[in-house]
Amino acid sequence: MGMWASLDAMWEMPAEKRIFGAVLLFSWTVYLWETFLAQRQRRIYKTTTHVPLELGQIMDSETFEKSRLYQLDKSTFSFWSGLYSEIEGTLILLFGGIPYLWRLSGRFCGYAGFGPEYEITQSLVFLLLATLFSALTGLPWSLYNTFVIEEKHGFNQQTLGFFMKDAVKKFIVTQCILLPVSSLLLYIIKIGGDYFFIYAWLFTLVVSLVLVTIYADYIAPLFDKFTPLPEGKLKQEIEVMAKSIDFPLTKVYVVEGSKRSSHSNAYFYGFFKNKRIVLFDTLLEEYSVLNKAILEESGMEARKDGEGDSEEIKANVKNKKQGCKNEEVLAVLGHELGHWKLGHTVKNIIISQMNSFLCFFLFAVLIGRKELFSAFGFYNSQPTLIGLLIIFQFIFSPYNEVLSFCLTVLSRRFEFQADAFAKKLGKAKDLYSALIKLNKDNLGFPVSDWLFSMWHYSHPPLLERLQALESSKQD
Description:
This protein is mainly alpha-helical and 475 residues long.
């Protein structure tokens, strides 16, 4: 009876109170669900202290323990940062942080001689202040993650000076993109008439395509050094493989990712007949800064002991080595190019744009509802930017959660298909060993709770991928 009475009471509230209550309730429901899943996975980290039988041939006990402790630390950090984020978001809503920041933005505009009629100018000031607040409150967490957790487990390569310079640069570059794009989007919504949602969607489509096109050539080099992969066997083999599947490769780059982290990666980008491949130096055995340091250190030890070619030292170097051999790099690229050949990239773009169009259409339907603005403290005005924030971030949050889960399931399916494509290229054996090496280099923990992995993992668990490849190796 008590539950039904409270529900009845909720329905008797004004519409704006119901909306506000529902948004807060859903936010905490999602947070508690995520925390429940994280605790399930954390239990796995705590209780799985020995290498399971099925992983005996894949992972040594030392690496297994390192990855277990790394993931435990990340899990603890994730719990506290998640709790802080949820409390901060709740307090901002409860104490009217959004309308306060909007009024503050109006005050700043007033000092500069811009009145309330300059809504787009006020919106840009609001965005600048909101992103500045977000950057400053997120900075201590980012510092702790980089200089305590990543440092402790041997991944961080940054100095504090490099980190701060990088953070300032990221903030400036973000503003240079965010502010002009937002002002044009708001202008289009203002003048677009009844069909503004179509023009707004087309504008965001063009912007996203332009950003994808220019990112690696003009934005990424502001943060990392990109150098063409030198002529040699690896480059030739990459070109041959690309040609064999009609991938229109124009350039292959190596990015100096080791300046900031020893995590490894590879990706391709570009449209139509202008595709480029980017390899992290940490992925390539012969480029790895860590390997060079290990070799130098081992050489010094050998000279001290007078045993220049000691078998023990060679084994030690091999065991500590980071990155993949050329054949394994090709297998990883075979997997990545599989995403292109199987149309995964295009499918993802189509899904993203269909979702974007639907969201703008629903935004057009809801933007006239004054109670949505009243729910968040905007009683006398309905600014377009605030409407976008309320509808896209709060009202659509249940839909966004469902969509995110569906995309995670689809992503895992795509990963299996890309692995199968690499098999067809005859790369099963090399991809098998590359996945083990990458898991070891990145200290991935190979045991996962089924519910946690189903909800979160965009890639299938390591063991499932290896089992799928194992069958083809035996074939």
